[in-house]
C-alpha cells in the first residue's frame, strides 16, 4: 500500500464517519499537526498511534495495511508545488519572501551561524480570540543547529 | 534615495557603531522583527520610529534622507529568490512543503474557508532554553480572513 | 467526492439541461461570479445556496454529495497555469505586467502601505454598450488592508 | 534618452518637488492611471500631455528630452517579474488564478468566443468608503474583441 | 463532450475516410487554417460550418455532439508547450526571437504605439514554387490596435 | 566593438538625425526588415550595405568600426526573453500557441515531413488599408526543407 | 494508431523476437540511426522501408497499421526533457554548453553567417577501437545554410 | 586575471591583428577546437601552448597574465544558457531532442550500459564539399565508460 | 517488462517477504548501494546477480522477466526531480550548493583540470557510532578523469 | 566589507603569494574543506583561525576587515546555480539524481525516518592511488537527525 492510497483511505473514512482531525488526533493521543501530517503522508506515526488511528477509522480489511503504511518513512513533499497558488498556503511563501532575511539576521545575532532545524521541530496552530477578528497563531519551534567547524 | 541605498547606509552605520539589531529596535521603540524588516526595506516605519532609527545610527548629512526612506511603502521581496538556497531560509520553504497541507486542513477545520493574513500579521523570534540544546521559537500571528461570499 | 468530480457533474448537468450560468446563479440567489467560481471548485457556497444549486441541476442520487462538496473549503487554483496561454485569461497577466507598478503607486499614494485584499473581495463582470463595439467591464473591490506595525 | 532614464528623472523630480501623482496627472490633463503608467515607461503620452508633464516637473535642460521620451512607444513590461513577489501586485496574479476560469465562462456566455482587449482598454482606481474599513475599487474596461472567422 | 474528445473523433474519422484537411475545409466552406484550428479545438466554428464538418466526417451517433462541440468557445492552447521542441513549430519561436524587436520597431514606425491583433486576425499558408526548392509562404494579417489613451 | 555597442551607436545616430528606419533601409538599398534586424545585431549586412548604413548615419570616427561590426555574424537572440511580456511581441507567441499545430498539419499535408526554414527565409511587414481599421500584414517565406532520409 | 502505440508495438516485437536494431535496420535497408529514430517516432520512413520493418517484426494484424504509422510525419521530441538527467544523454547537453561557442566561432570563420542544418542532416555512430579503451565516435553532417539577405 | 578578462583581451588582440582562429591554433600547435575553447575560457591550455598563444597575440604587459590564465582550470559553461536561442547553437539542442534516445539505444546495443565520455573526448569540425551545397561535418569522439558494478 | 514494472514487483515482493535491502544484497552477492540502485531501475545487474535477486524474491511466473529486466541498461533518473523537495534528498543538493565550489577548488589543486567520474564510481553508506548521536557516513569514490587536450 | 569583497581579496592575495589552499588551511590550523568554504564565503571561521588566515595572506590595511568578515555568518549559496553546468560540479547533481532514492532507502532501513544533517556535518576530499588511474574519494559525514514526533 502506497502512502497515497493510505491517505485516500483515511480521508474517505474520515468523511464517512464525519470525524474531525481533532477526533483522530485524540484517538492517536498525539498532537493534531503531527497526526494530520502523518495521515497526509508527510510523517511516520509510532506503532501505537498508528494502530489507534487505523482502529478508530474503522477501515475493515484494510485496517492492518493502513496501520503499517502510517509507520513507514515517507518520501515527503512529493505533491507539493514549488510555489503553491492556494492563497492560504501561498501566504507562507510570502512571509518567507518578506521576512526571510529578517529572521536570518535575528537568529544569527542571537545564536551565531546555524539554523533552526525543520526535523527536530514541532508546530502548533491555535485560535487567538480578538475583538477585531480572531487570529491564527502558529508556533514553530526547532532546535538550533550550529554549523560544524572542523 | 532608494530603499537599497537606505539599507546599505543602515548596515554600514550599524557595522561602524557595532550596534546590534536589539539596540536599533530599542532606539525605535518597536519590535525587533518589524524594525529589522523596515531597515532591510521590507516594511515602512511610522514617522517617529524612523526619526529615532536615523538619529540613533548617526548618519550625518544622510540622516534626513534615511528617515524619509524608512517611511516609504516598499516594493517588497524584490531581491528574494523564488526558493532560497540559504539553508536557514530554505528550511521555511521545507516546512511549507511538508506541513502546508496540514496547516490548511486544520485552519479550515477550526475557522472555515479563509486564510491567515500576512498583512495584518506579526512575527516573533525567541530563544527557548532546553538542556538538549536551545531551540528557536517563531510565533506567527495573523488575522483570520474569511472568504467573502456575495 | 472531490471538487474535481463535483465540477464535472455540475458541467455535465448544466450541458444536459442547457442551463446558463445566469440560470444557476439565479437559482442560488447569489452573484454569478461567486456561484460560478464555487461550481468550478474555487470557492465554498453557503449551505442554502449549495442546496439550491444542487437541486436546480437535478443530479439524481448525486445531489446530496454535490451539495456537500459545494460547501467545502477548496484547495484553490490547483489547475491554474503559472501563466495561462489562453488569450482571454492571459490578458489579465498582461494587464498586471503593464499596469502593476502603476496600481501600486496609486494605492500607496491614496492609502499608504498595504494591499487590496483578494479574500475580503468581490468581482463583477458587465457589458458596457458602446457604438464602436461593446465593452467588457470588470469591477474588483477588495478591502484595503494596511500593513501591521508592531 | 531611454525610458529607464526618463523614469528616473521623473521620480527624482517628483520627489524633489514633493509632487503627488495626482498633481502630475492634473498637470497632464489626463487620468492618473494613464499618466503614471506613461511616467513609468509603460505607455506613450500624446504630445501635449508630455509637454505639460515635463514642464510641470521642472527638469531644466533635460525637459525637452523627457518630453520626447514620454511620447515614444515603449517596450512594455521589460522589468516585470513573471510572477511578482510584492504582496500588492501578487494579489492580481492570485485573482487571476482563482477567478480566471470564472471570468472566461461568463464573458463567453455573454459575448461568445473572444476576449476583453487589454489595448483598447482603460483602468480606474477608486477609494470606496466603508464603515468596516475602506475598500479599493478597480474598474477595468476593455473592448470585446470577437475571434475572427474566415 | 470535451474539445479533446471532439478532436480525437475528428482525427479518427479523417483517418478512416482518408480525408485531407483540404477536403474537410471545402466541406465546411471556410479557409483551411480556420477549419483545422477549430478541429484541433483552438477556435469555434459557426453553426453552419460545424454541421457541415460533422456531417462530412460521418460520425454516426456522435455527429450531433461533435457538431455542438465544434461551436463552443475553447480554452485555447491548453496543450501547447511554452517553447515547443518540434522543429517545425520551434522555428516560429526562433523567428520571434530573431525578428521580434525588428517587427516592433517597424510597426511602431508605421502605425504608432499599438499592436497587431491576434484575435481580429487571419492566417494563410501557401506553396510558393521556386526552382531552387519550393517555399512555404505564411501570411498573417491582423487589425492594428492603437493603445487607448484616457 | 561589440554588437551591443554598435546597436547603441546606430540608435543614437538615428535619433540625432531624426532618421527613420525607412531612410536607413533606403540608404542601404535593402529591405527594411533585414536592415533593421542587422542594426539591432540580429543579422550581418553585406559589405556594401554596411558601408552605406554607416556613412548615412554620420558616425564620425566610429564609422569604420560600425561598418565592420555590421558585417560580423552575430550571436542572435541573446537579449530575447523566452516568452516576451511586451504585448506586441507576445502576440507572436500567442499565434504560435494557438495556430502552431494547425500550421504543422497543413505544411505536412502539402509538403510531407519537413519544415519551413527560418534561415533561407524572408519577412515583410505591410499596411493593409481597411475601412474598419487598417491592418498589419506580415508575410513570412522560407524554403521548405524535407527531412533527410539515409 | 498514434506514434506512441507504434513505438510500443515495435519495442515489444523487437523484444519478443530478440531482434537487434542492427537486424531491423538491415531489414529496412537503411542506416541504423535513421531506422531507430523512425521506430522511436522521431522520423518518417519511406513506404518501402516501412513495409519491410513492419513485415520483419511480425506484428500480426497490426502490421498494416504500424507500416502506415511509420510513414507519418511525427510531432518530434514530444517526450524529450528540456535537459535530460540520463547521464548518456546529458553529456550531449554538456558538450553543447562547453563547446557551443567554439563551434559557432569556427563555423562562422569557415562558412560565414549561417548554420549547420539539423534537417538536411545525418548522424552516424561507430566504435573506434583503442588499446586504452574503445571510443564512441559520432559523426554529424548537415548542410551549411547561409542566412538569407534581402 | 579572471577567465572573462582573459577572453576579452584575446578577442581584442585577435581583432586588432586580424588574426583568424586558424592562425592562433597554428601558433599554439594544437587543434583549432581545443585552442578556441581554451581562449573562450572553457579549457586549460598546457604551458607551452599557452605561452605561444599569448606571445602570438602580442599582448604587451598583459602577456604573462594571459599566459597564466590560459592554463588555469576554468569554471566551465558559466555563461551558457540552459537552452541557447542562437540558431546555430540551438540546432545541437534540437539534435539531442530528436536523436538522443536513438543514440542511447545504439550505444547500449554496441557497448552495454555506460556513456560516451565528454571529458576524455575530442571534437573536430570540417567542411565537406558537396555540389548541392557544402556541408558541416562534426566528429565527436569520446572514450566509452562502462558503469562500475560493485 | 519496463523498469517501472520491475521495480514495483521487486518492492511488492520485498514487502510480502518482509525482506530487507541487506537480505536482497546478500543474496545478490554485491554491495547494498549497487543492488538497491539496480532494483530501483538506476543500474544494470550482471546476469548472475540478477538471477539470484529474482530467485530470492520468489516472483513466481514473473521471475524470468524480472531477471532480464534487471540486466538492461536503464534510462536513468527519469523520475528524479530537478531539485527534490524530500528533506533527506534535498540535503545533497544543499551540500552541493554550499560546498560545490570548494570541492572544485580542491580537486583542481590536487589533480589539475578534470572531474571525479560518476560512472567509474562507487558509493558506500555506513553508520558511524557517536556518543552525541550516531552519524551517517557516505563515501563517494570515482576515478579522476583529466580533460583531454588535443 | 561584504563576503564577496572578502573572497576577492583572499583570492587575489592567494594568487599574488602563489599560496595553495593547503598552505592557507595549514596556517588556519583547520581542515582544507572548511577553510576553503569559509574563504569562498560559505562558512564562518572561528576568531583565531580568521586572524591566522588574514595574517598569513598579508592583506595590508585590509587585514582587520577580512579577519572580521571571515567570522560573520554568511548568506550561503547566493551565487550557486540551481543546477550547475560546470562538469565537475554537475556530477554531484547527477549522483543525487541517480542514487538519491537509493541513499534514502538505505538510511531509512538503517536509522528509521530522519535525515543526515548538512549542518552538523563534515566533508573530506582525498586522493586514492590506483594503478588504473587515481581516484577522488569524498567522505561526507553528518549527524543522523530523527524526525521529531509530538
TrEMBL record, chains A, B, C, D, E, F, G, H, I, J:
Among the GO molecular function terms of this UniProt record, one is:
cyanate hydratase activity
**This protein's UniProt keywords:** Lyase
Q: What is its EC number?
A: 4.2.1.104
EC class name: lyase
* Classification via InterPro entries: Cyanase, Cyanate_lyase_C, Cyanate_lyase_C_sf, CYNS_N, Lambda_DNA-bd_dom_sf
**SUPFAM superfamilies assigned to the protein according to its UniProt record, in alphabetical order:** Cyanase C-terminal domain (SSF55234), lambda repressor-like DNA-binding domains (SSF47413)
**Can you state which reaction this protein catalyses?**
cyanate + hydrogencarbonate + 3 H(+) = NH4(+) + 2 CO2
Which intervals hold domain Cyanate lyase C-terminal?
78-150
> Which residues are the active-site ones?
91, 94, 117
What family does the entry list?
A: Belongs to the cyanase family.
What does this chain do?
Answer: Catalyzes the reaction of cyanate with bicarbonate to produce ammonia and carbon dioxide.
For this entry, the protein name equals Cyanate hydratase
Origin organism is Roseibium polysiphoniae
User: Gene encoding this chain?
Assistant: cynS
Amino acid at each position: 500500500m502506497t502512502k497515497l492510497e493510505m491517505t485516500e483511505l483515511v480521508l474517505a473514512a474520515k468523511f464517512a464517519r464525519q470525524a474531525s482531525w481533532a477526533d483522530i488526533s485524540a484517538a492517536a493521543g498525539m498532537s493534531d499537526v503531527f497526526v494530520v501530517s502523518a495521515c497526509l503522508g508527510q510523517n511516520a506515526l509510532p506503532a501505537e498511534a498508528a494502530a489507534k488511528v487505523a482502529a478508530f477509522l474503522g477501515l475493515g480489511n484494510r485496517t492492518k495495511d493502513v496501520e503499517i503504511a502510517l509507520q513507514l518513512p515517507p518520501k515527503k513533499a512529493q505533491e507539493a508545488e514549488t510555489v503553491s497558488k492556494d492563497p492560504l498556503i501561498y501566504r507562507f511563501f510570502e512571509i518567507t519572501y518578506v521576512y526571510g532575511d529578517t529572521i536570518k539576521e535575528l537568529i544569527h545575532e542571537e545564536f551565531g551561524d546555524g539554523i533552526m532545524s525543520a526535523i527536530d521541530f514541532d508546530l502548533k496552530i491555535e485560535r487567538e480570540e480578538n475583538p477585531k477578528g480572531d487570529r491564527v497563531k502558529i508556533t514553530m519551534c526547532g532546535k538550533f543547529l550550529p554549523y560544524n567547524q572542523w
